[in-house]
Write a structure and sequence with these properties.
By secondary structure, the protein is of the alpha+beta class. The protein has a domain at 43-126: Fusion Protein Consisting Of Minor Coat Protein, Glycine Rich Linker, Tola, And A His Tag, Chain: A, Domain 2, CATH 3.30.1150. The protein contains four helices and three strands, in the order αααββαβ. A three-stranded antiparallel sheet has the order 2-1-3, covered by helices on one side. A hairpin with a 5-residue loop joins strand 1 and strand 2 (85-92). The longest helix is centred in the first third of the chain and has 18 residues, at 2-19. The N and C termini lie far apart (92 Å).
Length: 131
C-alpha cells in the first residue's frame, strides 16, 4: 500500500513538473510572460476597417454617373489568410447591374484586407454628389 502511495505521489510530482513551463528554472518575471491572447485590433475594429477600405476602393461606373443612377448594394465575401477577398457575390441589389458589378469588384481592389473568419456582408453606397 505504501509503495502504491509513493508511486502516486511521484506521478503527481512528475506531472506537476512536466506541466510547469521552465521547470527547474527560476520563476520568470511578469514582464517575460507571454499573453495567450494575440495583440492587435479587435474583430469589430477589423470589420470596420474592412468596410472603410472597401467603400474607399469603389469606382463609380461612369455610365451610371452620367445617368444619375445611385443606390446601395449589399455584398458578401470571405477573406482568405492572405487578405484577399474571395467568393464575392451580391446579396441585395441596388437595382442597377452597373453598380452591383462595381460593388463586387471593390473588395478585390481593396485587398489585402485584415483577416477575419467567416462571411462578411457589407453595404456599398453609391451616392452622386453635386458640387
Amino acid at each position: 500500500m505504501k509503495s502504491a502511495l509513493r508511486r502516486f505521489a511521484w506521478v503527481c510530482v512528475a506531472l506537476g513538473v512536466l506541466a510547469t513551463p521552465g521547470a527547474g528554472a527560476p520563476p520568470a518575471r511578469e514582464a517575460d510572460w507571454i499573453d495567450g491572447i494575440p495583440l492587435g485590433p479587435s474583430p469589430g475594429d477589423r470589420i470596420e476597417e474592412i468596410r472603410r477600405r472597401v467603400q474607399a476602393a469603389v469606382v463609380y461606373p461612369e455610365p451610371a454617373r452620367r445617368r444619375g443612377i445611385s443606390g446601395t448594394t449589399r455584398i458578401q465575401f470571405v477573406i482568405d489568410a492572405g487578405g484577399r477577398a474571395q467568393e464575392v457575390v451580391t446579396v441585395e441589389s441596388s437595382g442597377s447591374r452597373l453598380l452591383d458589378r462595381a460593388a463586387e469588384q471593390s473588395p478585390v481592389t481593396a485587398s489585402p484586407l485584415p483577416h477575419v473568419y467567416g462571411r462578411l456582408q457589407i453595404p456599398i453606397v453609391f451616392e452622386l454628389r453635386t458640387p
